[in-house]
Protein: SprT-like domain-containing protein Spartan
Amino acid sequence: MGVSLSTSDSSSEYYSAPNSPDLSFNQNYTENFTEKHSVACQTDLSFQKDLSVVDPYWEVLDPKPDIHVLFEEFNTKFFGGQLPPIELKWNNRLSITAGLFIPDDKIERCKIHLNKPLLELRPRKDTVQTLLHEMIHYYQRVKGTRDNDHGAIFKYHMKRINRKSGAKITIHHDFIQEYESLKRHWWKCNGPCQEVVKRLADRTPGSKAHKRKCGGDFIKIQEPENKRMRTDP
Ligand SMILES: [Zn+2]
Ligand SMILES: [Zn+2]
Structure:
C-alpha cells in the first residue's frame, strides 16, 4: 500500500484518524510481527528467549544448530544447570536410532551420540527433541535415579519439559513408529510360531531355517489399500 510505517508522533496521528482504523490495526500487527520475527539486522536477540525451543521460526533462523550450544541452553533451562559437560557428538553409524545415551559407572565417561545421517534430513525440532530425550537419561544417571529405561521418573521429566518447552519428547529413540506405519505388507506364519512379519515391499518372508524349525508358511494377511484396488477387478 506504499505507506511507510514510521512510528513518529505525526504518523501515529495519521494512522489513528477516524477514517482509517484498519491501518492502525495493520501498524500494530506489523510492529508485533517485526518485534518477534525480524532479527537479521538486530543485535539485541533477547526476544529469542520467548520462543519455544521448537518454534518453527528456529527452522529458518538456525536450521543446523550447534548441539553443544543447545546442550548448554537446555541444561540451564530444563535441568537447573546440573548436568556436567559430556562427550556429545554426531555419529554416522547409529542405524535407525536417532539418539543414544551411553552410561558409564563414571559420570564423566558417559556419552550422548546423535544420528547424523538421520537427523540432518529431518526438521531441526527432531534434533532438539532427541537431544532432550538423551539429556533426561543423563540427568537420571547424574542424580543416581533408580528407574527403568523409560519408567515413571523418565516420563515425569519428559512431561515436565514438554509442558515447559512446547516440545514433544517421546519415549522412543527413533522414528520407528513412523517407519513401521509405512510397512503395509503383512504376513502371518500358519505354523506353530505364528510369527507376523510386516514389510515395506511385497516380498514374502521365510527362510530355510524357519522352514526347518517351525515348518509353517507365511500367508499374506494385509496389503496396502491401493494395491488391493489394483488387483481386485
Ligand atoms: Zn531413551
Ligand atoms: Zn513359523
Summary: The two ends are 58 Å apart (CA to CA). The pocket of zinc ion (ligand 1) is lined by residues 133, 137, 149-150, 173 (CB under 6 Å). The CA atoms of residues 15 and 162 lie 42 Å apart. Residues 56-175 form a domain with the Zincin-like fold (CATH 3.30.2010.10).
